[in-house]
Every structure is written in structure tokens, then in C-alpha cells.
């Protein structure tokens, strides 16, 4: 399920946004301020952030700048909600790395269309399949993985791990990073737990000779790559 973090201080607007998103099949996290959003975004790794410009304390723009400076979080797309349809604000937001804008008041249809478009660009639209070549395929709606068109039997953690790898290919992650990004920062488990699940994932891929996609990078961690290690 695709999770969207809504950052909006006005309760009525936030609830309306949350209801709209839940109705459209998204999972929703809510934050009333930038600092609350900072905590949630680190813990829950949302697929997209809907960010109000006018927030008490840290402004939406400041939050976006903070997010885009963090190498682990900077890839989370941001749609800014603003009452100001002025070129100057848009430029400031785009400079800060904001992906798109929705000007208030907006229609539900427009908002959902923008969200879908941004998620698609970011490669995390849950209505689409994630494919690796023509042999491995993950369907997030049906929550299943196919290898050579055969359903792969993977546990929930292996599914999450594989999903993370599929959306973050060709990059090396340490065990600590994988724990943070796949298990979440509030979970305190040992780093060797990662190895256990990597082993299980490889074992599931083995019958299709795809286990080498999950590569060990000695002294560093793991990488999902379609290129030979
Ligand atoms: Ca506001």
C-alpha cells in the first residue's frame, strides 16, 4: 500500500485530505507541523509528502529544504499545497526540490491526478507493476512477486526488502541503513537480522537463478543490481 504523509496545520483541511486519500486507496500519515513531519518521515518512509506551505514554526519551504538535504529522504517526492499562485513562490519551491504544486482551493480530481503523476515519475505508483527485465515482477496491488511468471513464495519481510531493492536499484546500503529504511527507525533489532532475510530472499530467487541480483558488497552491505557484481 502506498503511504502519503499529509503535513497541514489546519485540522479541517488535513482531515479532508486524509479522507480523500484513504478513499483513493492510499495509506495516510498526518502531521500538523514540520517538526512532527520530520519525525514521521524518518520513521515511516512515505512514498509521497503533501506539504502545506503555510505552517506554524518551520514553514513548508523550510521542511522541503531540510528533506532534500537528507540523502536518505531526498528522493521522497513532495507536492506543495499553496494558496499563493505566484511565480516567485513556485520558483522558490522548485529550487528547494519540490516536485509539483497544487494551488488552493483545488479539486479532489486534480489533486489525485497530480499525486498519481508524481508517484509514477518517482516509480512508486502502486497501481503499476515493478519489473526487473522481463523475468521478475512485483505487483503491489496483488501483493505478489512473479519470477518467470511463476508466483514466488516470500514472507512479508522479504517482500518489503525486495520492494525496497526494486525501487532503489544499483545502490549499496549498509545493514544499518536497510534496518532504518525497510524495518523502520523505531524497531530495534540486530543488524544480523538483515542477513537472515537477505538469505531467505536469495533462497526464494534461487530456483529461477535470480539470487545474484541481491549482491553482497564486502565490508559495506548489500546492493540490488542487474549487473554482475
Ligand atoms: Ca496551513
Task: Give a description of the structure.
The protein is 41% helix and 21% strand. With 229 residues, it is α/β, with parallel strands linked by helices. 26% of the residues are buried. The mean pLDDT is 89. The protein binds calcium ion. Calcium ion binds at residues 8-10, 52, 54-55.
Major β-sheet, in short? 5 strands, parallel
- Order of SSEs: EHEHEHEHEHEEEEHEHHEE
Spatial separation of the terminal alpha carbons: 31 Å
CATH class wording of the largest domain: Alpha Beta
The coarse overall form would be: elongated
Which small molecules are bound? calcium ion
The overall pLDDT, averaged over residues, is: 89
Secondary structure class reads alpha/beta
Contiguous helical run count = 8
Summarize the amount of helix as a percent range.
40-55%
What name does the CATH topology of the largest domain carry? Rossmann fold
Secondary structure blueprint with pairings:
Layout lengths: L2 E5 L3 H13 L3 E5 L2 H11 L3 E5 L7 H10 L8 E5 L4 H9 L4 E4 L4 H15 L6 E4 L3 E4 L4 E4 L2 E3 L3 H12 L4 E2 L1 H9 L8 H14 L8 E4 L3 E4 L5
Parallel strand pairs: 1-2, 1-3, 3-4, 4-5
Antiparallel strand pairs: 6-7, 7-8, 8-9, 10-12, 11-12
Bound molecules: calcium ion (CA).
List keywords for this structure.
single chain, 229 residues, alpha/beta, Rossmann fold, Arc Repressor Mutant, subunit A, 2 domains, five-stranded parallel β-sheet, four-stranded antiparallel β-sheet, binds calcium ion
Can I get a quick summary?
By secondary structure, this protein is α/β, with parallel strands linked by helices. 41% of the residues lie in helices and 21% in strands. The chain is elongated, with a radius of gyration of 19 Å.
Amino acid at each position: 500500500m502506498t503511504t502519503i504523509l499529509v503535513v497541514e496545520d489546519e485540522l479541517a483541511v488535513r482531515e479532508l485530505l486524509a479522507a480523500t486519500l484513504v478513499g483513493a486507496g492510499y495509506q495516510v500519515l498526518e502531521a500538523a507541523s514540520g517538526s512532527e513531519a520530520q519525525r514521521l518521515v524518518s520513521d515511516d518512509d512515505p512514498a509521497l509528502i503533501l506539504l502545506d506551505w503555510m505552517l506554524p514554526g518551520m514553514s513548508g519551504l523550510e521542511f522541503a529544504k531540510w528533506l532534500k538535504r537528507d540523502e536518505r529522504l531526498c528522493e521522497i517526492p513532495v507536492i506543495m499545497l499553496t494558496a499563493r499562485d505566484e511565480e516567485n513562490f513556485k520558483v522558490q519551491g522548485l529550487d528547494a526540490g519540490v516536485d509539483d504544486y497544487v494551488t488552493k482551493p483545488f479539486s479532489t480530481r486534480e489533486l489525485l491526478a497530480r499525486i498519481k503523476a508524481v508517484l509514477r515519475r518517482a516509480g512508486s505508483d502502486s497501481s503499476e507493476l515493478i519489473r526487473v527485465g522481463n523475468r521478475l515482477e512485483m505487483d503491489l496491488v496483488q501483493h505478489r512477486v512473479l519470477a518467470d511468471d511463476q508466483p514466488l513464495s516470500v514472507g512479508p519481510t522479504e517482500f518489503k526488502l525486495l520492494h525496497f531493492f526494486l525501487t532503489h536499484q544499483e545502490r549499496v546500503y549498509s545493514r544499518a541503513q536497510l534496518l532504518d529504511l525497510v524495518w523502520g527507525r523505531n524497531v530495534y533489532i540486530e543488524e544480523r537480522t538483515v542477513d537472515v532475510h537477505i538469505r531467505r530472499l536469495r533462497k526464494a530467487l534461487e530456483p529461477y537463478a535470480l539470487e545474484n541480483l541481491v549482491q553482497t558488497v564486502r565490508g559495506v552491505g548489500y546492493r540490488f543490481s542487474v549487473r554482475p557484481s
